[in-house]
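User: Small ask, check this?
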Amino acid sequence: MQLLAELATPDVAVDSLASRPGFLADQVAGPSARRRALLTLGLSLLVFLALAPLARVQLSPVPAFIPIYETALVVNDLITAVLLFGQYRILRSRALLSLACGYLFTALVACVHALSFPGLFAPAGLIGGGSQTTAWLYMLWHAGFPLYVLAYVLLKQGGQRAGRRETWALPGLTVCLVAAGALLATVGEDWLPALMRGNRYAPAMLATVTCVWACSLLALYKLWRLPERSVLDLWLMVALSAWLFDIALSALLNGGRYDLGFYAGRIYGLIACSLVLFELLLENASLYNRLARQYERDRLVSAELEVARDAAETANVAKSMFLANMSHEIRTPMNAIVGLTTLMLETKLDGRQRDYMRNVHTSSKALLTLLNDILDYSKVEAGRMTLENEEFSPEETIENVGNLFAAKLEESGLELLYRVEKDVPQRLLGDALRLSQVLNNLVGNAIKFTPRGEIVIGLEQVARAEGRVQLRFSVSDTGVGLSKEQRQRLFESFSQGDRSVARKYGGTGLGLAICKRLVGLMDGEFTVGSTPGEGSCFSFTAWFGETVSKSQPPDLHRILGMRTLVVDNQPTGRLILQQQLQRWRFQVATASFGDEALHKLRRAEAVAPYELVLLDWKAAGHHFIEQLWPLVAERKAEPPILVVMVNLHAADQVQALLEGNSRALMLVKPVTPSRLFEAIVQLQHAGAEPPSEPAPRKSDWAASLQPLRGARVLLAEDNPVNQQIAMAFLAMGGLEVTVAANGVEAVDWFKRDRFDVILMDVQMPELDGIPATRLIRSLPGGDAIPIIAMTAAVLDEDRQECLAAGMNAHVSKPIDPSELIRTLLAWVPPVETGTRPAASSAPGS
């Protein structure tokens, strides 16, 4: 009665928990489950009370009853065990594993019990034994299952998860227990007390059944004492109650086999094993129903996502087309602005006019940079940014960055220095263009925000693994620095360190966001260190591939260690040069200015004269050199080697000062370790190759195009201003230009005349450059002539489309004269004097 009252107690909190979906083992029993369990238990109790007085009424033996009963038990228990094992695989609960093994135990013992029943398959049972075998198997069966339930309760309170070994060990142990019980009841029957005398119970039966009944009662009590019962716990209580009624009717209150208690008790046993199975099947149906509904919801969501994806792809295509069209439309007038200002700056202008034109030219370049940033950002966002894998020199890359900013550095009065560690490989595999893009952005920002002082580009090797090398690049400055808040939003798109930055310096705020994405594509990371008022250091790592023939460091056998004096008024530059020379086994002393250097030279004359003077032009200037020559003239030995490092604007003056001196050499700053190494080697060894100097900043187009002077160019361009600009650039180099206003005219000109190269615009009226190129390639001689795309379509797909159509190269607008000259020199063979026929005046009809 107390159990009935416990089951009938309402619990609002439990009901709210029971409403959540879950397995029977972890779903708390609510009022609905309690009511059904209470109803089942009440009916079972009423039937039991009605049958108990009639338990000893003898009935006729029914031969088919035991096989049907045992078969139903085995099937029910095996299905229950399988379902519980399935839940165990999901929840990994030791308690569930124990309960599943309990149902496996009852199924196996029921099989053995049926095989041992006298008269069923054989007069004494199929597995042998004696008259007590079946009775003892019944006792082991009805005592074993409650013990498994007891283990379930104890393990549930521990809340432990089972390991992989237990998944197989506990079922295996269960099979062994069943086998041991069968052996005990058959082979060891003589050791056990007699429970049966024919078909009637012996006196020992009462004590044995009482112990078995107590096991079930103990398991039921432990379930009842659980602080929070799940639905599974609730139905196990109902099943154990039916189990108690089974034992009471079939082995405690009746007199033996084939009376009413014998038959009724086994029906209760069948009910006991079916209750949990019924709930598990209901749960599976509910789970399947929820799964089906969830599948339908997922299908609908998937359909909506597909529609959204298609819409996003359509929008992305439209955005890409818009960006491509806008890029083309903006670049077309920008080509006129940049080209015409470039041409104007090559003419004679007074000071004010030149200043105006230079400002227009600088502003147009800035606008082009913004446009390129937006295009790069859109490619990165769309996941279409890919990296090349070509051989390059890391040291040359940072030197090219320095060359690019040389004019700005001179104008700002800043010093650019390189710090390259000795273990950096000479050649690697990677995308030097994208690496330069990141460095250009960092150096450009450093120049913006450094009013005075120096900028140092650092390069070192971090790691090496499996044919790859990780390098760390750094750009540090002595500028205004950044606060913590500014650093936190530094890499956000369209964001800058300070709102006033955009007004003062311009820019989209996309540069660092793009750089971070590019570094991510190189498997690297960004690091920023900064102190307001003291400067910043932006560093990033990147992985590159090693070349097939691994590059070697400079051969130190080529250079002789020398006593060296470094003269530089910048402490950082002085330290970098000192450390670099010491790596080459030089003995190095330093001086900050000219007078100090002369003093050290005089003091060293008597003891150990300096053999090399490495001089920064800013630190000493021509006064130092004028005093140096008389000083070394008194020496009986050879004068020291002199290497002068100068800025570009002072190069002509210093070159004239050093003219005719075989022991002096000039290097344009900033100086890389490789160029310094080659310069010293040249001075030490007569006839050595001179060190390569950076290309002059002011291009001499006519001289560069000298090998192609007289070459005939067919220019297919529909825009009159672009025609004017291209013709002016090419005419400076002495090239003969014929203009076609569209693709049709270009094809006609090619049919009628002979040309050395075709410069083809892509978007033209009547016939575009792509189909025009295909037509020319199909004509006689069309496969041999170089065709170079010269267009404002600059996206990667535009370049690929041009190459796929048969063009040899791609030059983007606005036209960069240096890029155009490099491309022409790469594809047009040098012109032999007097071999060109006269040009026709117009295309044929």
